[in-house]
Amino acid sequence: MRILVLNGPNLDILGRRDPAQYGTVTLADLEAIVRAEAAEHGHEVDFRQTNREGELVDWLHEALDDHDAVVINPAAYAHTSVALHDAVEALSVPVVEVHLSNTWKREPFRHVDHVATAATAVIAGAGADGYRLAVAHVAALLRG
Ligand SMILES: O=C(O)[C@]1(O)C[C@H](CCCOc2ccccc2)[C@@H](O)[C@H](O)C1
Q: How many CB atoms are closer than 10 A to CB 70?
């Protein structure tokens, strides 16, 4: 099965700034974690990052036909984007949202999550392990 893993804005500079909030993990580290967990379950991974909201929407549309599940860290667009909500809602495959941090313990503006209201499941606050857990959960869902 093919799992699409999408990462939103500023995750490309993860590990280069703000270690207090997100630790020293890099996007490359997250990709390695995801690929290793997916391989444990015999699944392929398509791992992507963009700072552009519309590109995330376009990539979610690809999952209508080309992928069996989606893991997405929408980053700050989770808190603002109805477009991402609608794109996730349009999918019939499982969509698991991940946030490295526990957004519910942070600033009030991060307590709005338009993706969570359309996603199958949400994992927040587990750091890099949240990405591994998301892939493990997707694998369990795909097993039925
Ligand atoms: O906890 C998460 O995974 C977040 O999605 C990370 C986003 C931020 C992505 C990384 O942004 C950086 C900013 C400066 C330095 C390093 C990363 C944040 O806007 C969300 O509220 C929660």
A: 26
Burial of 14-23, coded b for 16+ CB within 10 Å and e otherwise, reads: bbeeeeeebe
Q: What percent of the chain has pLDDT over 70?
A: 100
Which listed residue (22, 67, 85, 114) is catalytic? 22
pLDDT in tens, 12-62: 999 998 888 898 999 999 999 999 999 999 999 999 999 999 999 999 999
CA distance 62 to 123: 23
DSSP state of 68: S
ipTM confidence? 0.98
Q: Is 131 a catalytic residue?
A: no
Cβ of 80 closer than 6 Å to ligand 1, yes or no, is no
Gap between the terminal Cα atoms of the chain: 13
The second-level CATH assignment, the architecture, of 2-143 is 3-Layer(aba) Sandwich (3.40)
Say what the pTM is. 0.98
The DSSP code for 120 is: S
